[in-house]
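Below is how a single chain appears once it has passed through the pipeline. First comes the sequence as given, then the structure the pipeline wrote out for it. We keep one example in the README because the format questions we get most often are answered faster by looking than by reading.
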Amino acid sequence: MGAPKYVLLSYDEGTEPIGVYGPERTWALCEDAADLFADPPPPMPERYELLGCAPGGELRTALARARADGSAPLGRLTLEPLDKGGRGEGEWCLEDVRVIGDRPCAHDMSLRDVTVEGRPSGDNLYGQPQRPPLSPGYRLLGADGEPWGGCRDLTHVQEDGPEAPEPPVRLLGCSPRGALRAALDGGEEDLGHALVVRVDLSGRPLQPTAEGELRAWIPSARGPGLVDLALDPWSERPPLAAREVWDLWDEGRPAEPGRWAACDIDGRRLWLETALAHHTHDTPNRPPSTTYHLDGNHITDLPGFFCALGEAVNGPAGYFGRDLHALNDCLRGHWGARTPFTLVWHAAAVARTHLDGTPHTGRRPPTFDQLLAFLAERHVDIRLA
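Resulting structure:
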């Protein structure tokens, strides 16, 4: 058997001892896995109706184009629920909106019922909004807050289609042990609930990958006494980028800086998750007024900034935040550095070019200058080099 990439742990609360990931016991060491990684499918446009709508601005213009052409692009549409006094109560957004058409409102012939398609924004803090009691409805706004009229209500009219079945995760070349070995020898069909963990070459855990129910097994072609197991996952599968990132961590925490730089933006996000999982929390903070050097040569997106910042503060594969909220927490101490401190940002022009020049849909990440202002407000002295 080759070096295992995965460890299969039992996950049967009440019958197993408590371990690193919860109730667990090692059930098998597995050489590899198939059908483990999968990116979530891109969200499909959903159809909504803006009922009792008085369209304005670009919405009115797009509606006129839709009447002529069958549909028209609109972009980002924000709905602001109004309380009974007409004051806004938060916001809810649709991305990549297209106007499909309209018809007279059945309750008020001076208004229109407008049909649109779009994707709920990932920034939404809740599901489809419900009109508050006695509310006049919603204020409609464009991407930059420009007024686009209003509507009395919102309905979701698209029915979900059938979901395509997903293949099981196949754990290949597994060496079963303990209760799993006994279950296989006894011909049991219900093998139980299990957790799959990715490990490095020394057997240290990197990250949990999938959790689910063991459904079947066959003898493995990888060697005598080994089996291939089928696991029906309950959790989301790790994204495709995880394979590349975990391979970079195969020999443990990388000892040289910049290993993350070859990853795309999804891989960099996964790198940050892995770095957080392996952050040593008992390392004392360096004293205030310490100077840190940030290598900006590969900061072409916001996750790249956090990868580089983690290394500047805590060394190769270090962690010091993965978004602005987490960075704000790290700057309060107990994550390796204490403010005030100095950050010398080398090759800063790379980040300025990419953070300010990359087009975005939805809510835009901070620009280079906004990032500098965020740090300065929290007593980080930035020196661009």
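The longest strand covers residues 205-219.

See the next section for the split statistics.
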